[in-house]
UniProtKB/TrEMBL annotation:
It catalyses: ATP + protein L-histidine = ADP + protein N-phospho-L-histidine. The keyword Nucleotide-binding applies. Keywords: ATP-binding, Kinase, Membrane, Nucleotide-binding, Phosphoprotein, Transferase, Transmembrane, Transmembrane helix, Two-component regulatory system. This is histidine kinase. Its EC number is 2.7.13.3. Coiled coil: none annotated. Its main location: membrane. It comes from Olivibacter oleidegradans. The chain crosses the membrane at residues 15-35, 192-211. GO terms for molecular function: ATP binding. CDD domains: HATPase_UhpB-NarQ-NarX-like (cd16917). It is a multi-pass membrane protein. It is found in: Membrane. The keyword Chloroplast does not apply.
Length: 609
């Protein structure tokens, strides 16, 4: 239940953490979307303002060209007329684009009521200039000088409406500028809101996720240290109990007692009335106050109990059967005796029961020996149970060491990063924009480092590649990851190209054995090179972990020495659990070779793989 509760707590923290990161990512995406949209709108506004300014210039150019055409000769006038026609075409095209939009020129349709109203007010002025200019162009194109006086009205129309057109275009450009400024202010406000949301989420992460996680890690460390102390004390007590049971077993194993042969102890008639009792029985069981009258009296029965016994006995022998039972009752000295009783009927010539003979075998020595053997067997069972408890305690210590290592990794790695993140967040000053932006970048990098550290810890706990792709891929990934993180050179070889998938239980235990062996080679053996090789045949899989380190005495792997390495015990226990066999060869200065043999076929007595 405690493990289930802790799992729920960490699952809830992980869910909160992922939710917070998702919200931050969403706010960044929304911010980028708004910025890009605003940039596109700014680009469109720039085109519009540029085109509106060009309209002012074109209107002035139309007035200038109309005045010049009245003073030049025919050849020069033709050139000016062509230019006037071109200017008129561009002027009408720009006006249409500004009013109704132009997708090719990246000018959208204006949705501003103020802009549309200004264009609507300006349209009559534009039409007056445009139509007058076209009439002047058409009449001058014919080359008739007598038509010049007729064009004075159109020229006056152009010159009269030009200043009005310029004022309208100024109003339109100013309105566009105000709209663009409003968009910028709105974008700034949106960016501040998104920034505030992101900052609030980071603060909530620190308060609701990182600080509780740090507190939980510290509590776990305290529990781990206490559990280690309790486990060591329990290990000493179990060791003393094991020694005591060994001494008891030695004493019990020396007991050997004989079994007595059966003897005739009494005779009776067919009704069970005694007329003979042997001296052996009288010496062993007779009391002065006792008088034996019936067979029931031989076994200490009297009254109704004796009558019932005699009735049952007569029923048995009347059916041509022998009566047999093992009875326990006291002898003359008061000791309990185990007597194997046989009552055999003797028949006369007519086939009727004539005599009952009572035989007894003293089973006391055998029963006592069996009891002693039972005690001995029970002691052996208790020894094995306590031995298993001892192993379990050592395995528990190994697990506690592993948990302690993980907790230290979390405390020294993730815990320190979380603390740094807390201080980074607390030092943010919103009034200092550039400094705040830099700190947010640092916080983002720190969060990425925390995620990476969590992934490393998660990989050590349960590598996903092992469950997804199998043992070979898991071992290869393990060797590659350790090779990257350590200064040692690690090599993995799949000699026989083994690709078979085993059960998750077997693959997980093989992976943990190899992981423990490689970590020991790096941590204790000081080996510059570690080779992990894998080969197989039809019957078994063989894994070899070889290093060229300092080596050790073979007694260091004794399973029952708590002062020696628990890593070897864990490896041995895991190998036994999957019906494997673990061999460890090592000598000081010559390195260590660890071989793991795992059956690939289900043999009698093996656990199915």
């Amino acid at each position: 239940m405690r493990i289930y509760t802790q799992h729920n707590q960490f699952s809830r923290l992980r869910a909160y953490y992922l939710l917070a990161l998702s919200i931050i990512a969403l706010s960044i995406i929304i911010g980028q979307f708004l910025v890009q949209r605003h940039l596109r709108e700014q680009e469109s506004d720039a085109h519009i303002v540029n085109m509106a300014g060009r309209q002012r210039m074109l209107s002035q150019k139309i007035s200038k060209l109309i005045l010049l055409t009245n003073r030049l000769n025919t050849k020069e006038r033709d050139s000016l007329l062509k230019e006037l026609a071109s200017v008129n075409a561009e002027w009408i095209e720009n006006n249409t684009s500004l009013r109704y939009g132009n997708e090719a020129a990246a000018i959208p349709i204006s949705k501003s009521k103020a802009i549309n109203r200004l264009f609507l007010e300006n349209q009559p002025v534009f039409d007056s200039i445009y139509f007058a200019s076209n009439r002047i162009y058409s009449q001058l194109k014919n080359g008739d000088k007598s038509s010049y006086p007729l064009l004075e009205n159109d020229m006056r129309t152009v010159l009269k409406h030009e200043p009005i057109f310029l004022r309208h275009m100024d109003s339109i450009v100013n309105t566009y500028e105000k709209l663009a400024s409003g968009k910028i202010v709105k974008l700034k406000r949106t960016e501040y809101i998104l920034f505030g949301i992101s900052l609030l989420i980071i603060i909530l992460e620190v308060l609701l996720i990182f600080i509780p996680t740090t507190r939980k890690v510290n509590e776990t460390l305290i529990k781990l240290i206490k559990s280690e102390s309790d486990a060591q004390q329990m290990s000493k007590e179990i060791g003393a109990l094991y020694a005591s049971l060994e001494e008891s077993y030695e004493r019990i194993s020396g007991i050997t007692l004989p079994v007595a042969p059966p003897r005739l102890i009494a005779k009776s008639d067919k009704g069970g009335n005694l007329y003979y009792v042997s001296d052996y029985y009288l010496r062993s069981f007779s009391h002065e106050e006792q008088r034996y009258k019936t067979i029931a009296n031989l076994f200490g029965l009297a009254g109704e109990a004796a009558d019932d016994f005699n009735d049952q006995l007569i029923d048995v022998v009347s059916n041509l059967k022998n009566w047999h039972k093992e009875l326990v009752y006291s002898d003359k000295s008061g000791e309990k005796r185990h007597m194997d009783i046989h009552i055999i009927p003797i028949y006369n010539q007519e086939g009727e029961v004539d005599v009952l003979q009572v035989f007894a075998a003293d089973m006391t020595p055998r029963r006592l020996a069996e009891q002693d053997m039972y005690k001995k067997d029970r002691a052996e069972i208790e020894r094995k149970v306590n031995e298993q408890k001892f192993r379990s305690i050592l395995v528990l210590e190994g697990q506690e060491e592993e948990r302690k290592r993980i907790a230290m990794n979390i405390h020294d790695g993730i815990g320190q990063m979380l603390t740094s993140l807390k201080f980074q967040t607390a030092s943010i000053d919103l009034s200092k924009t550039k400094e705040t932006e830099q700190k947010l970048l640092d916080i983002n990098k720190l969060i990425k480092d925390i995620i990476q550290e969590v992934r490393i810890v998660t990989f050590n706990l349960k590598p996903p590649v092992l469950s997804d792709y199998g043992l070979v891929a898991g071992l290869k990934n393990l060797v590659q990851e350790i090779d990257k993180l350590s200064n040692n050179r690690l090599i993995f070889e799949n000699i026989t190209d083994f690709q078979q998938r085993l059960s998750p239980k077997v693959e997980n235990n093989i992976y943990r054995i190899v992981q423990e062996a490689v970590n020991n080679a790096i941590k204790y053996a000081n080996s510059p090179t570690v080779l992990v090789s894998l080969e197989h045949n039809t019957d078994e899989l063989v894994l070899t972990i070889k290093d060229t380190g300092v080596g050790f005495e073979s007694k260091s792997t004794d399973l029952f020495h708590a002062d020696y390495g628990h890593g070897f015990l864990n490896m041995q226990e895991r190998a036994t659990y999957i019906n494997g066999k673990l061999l460890i060869e090592s000598k000081p200065g010559l390195g260590t070779i660890i071989k793991l043999f795992v059956p690939l076929k289900n043999k009698p007595g093996n656990i199915a793989i």
